[in-house]
Amino acid sequence: MRDHQLKVVVFTVLTVLFLCYSFVLYFKDYQETVPADALAQKGKDIWQQKNCGSCHQLYGLGGHLGPDLTNVYGKREQPYIEAFLRTGTTVMPNFHLSDSEINALIAFFKYTNTTGVADPRSFTKHLDGTISQQSSSVR
Ligand code: HEC
To answer: Which helix (H) or strand (E) element contains residue 124?
Structure first.
């Protein structure tokens, strides 16, 4: 009987702690270190709507079918990126993006390239379980 009570107490305490932690993280004041301009923000929205993150990572987080694209703007020429977005490849789908959507995505890649690096080993872990990158490691 005592064993059972102990289990209930432990379960209740863990549940309450989990809910408190979720609540704190959810309402934590989040600010982008470098705010995205309107075009980059539009690109970010397209990124989310088309679910590019299911195959690609940004800042080291996301799907692993395609490469991490955080610094793709720094590594590749713009026409190369445009070609992928315009036609896809045998393994990457063609999303039939309009010119303005392609421009917005490229502005978004420009933004990610200046705000972070792909390598998760460069992240700083905080006590509350969140992560950030040192500005010195940003290219
Ligand atoms: C079904 C998985 C998948 C989805 C969804 C996807 N991609 Fe890709 N993407 C890939 C793969 C795989 C590659 C590598 C293809 C290759 O080299 O032929 C790639 C390559 C790329 C490249 C070239 C990267 C490089 O350095 O060579 C860019 C840019 C890109 N994707 C952007 C996007 C964007 C933007 C979206 C959303 C609109 C998107 N992808 C959605 C799978 C995906």
So the answer is: strand 123-125
The rounded distance, in Å, linking the Cα atoms of 105 and 45 is 9
CB 94 within 8 A of CB 105: no
CA of 15 from ligand 1 middle (Å) equals 40
pLDDT at 47: 98
Cβ-in-10-Å burial (0-12, 13-18, 19+) of 114 comes to middle
Instruction: Using alpha carbons, list the distances in angstroms from residue 95 to 15, 76, 125.
Output: 42, 20, 36
Question: 36-137 belongs to which CATH class?
Answer: mainly alpha
Q: Look up the pTM and report it.
A: 0.80
Q: Show the ligand 1 pocket: residues with CB < 6 angstroms.
A: 50, 52, 54-56, 65-67, 69, 72, 76, 81, 84-85, 89, 91-93, 95, 105
pLDDT at 1: 64
Residue nearest to atom 26 of ligand 1 (CA): 72
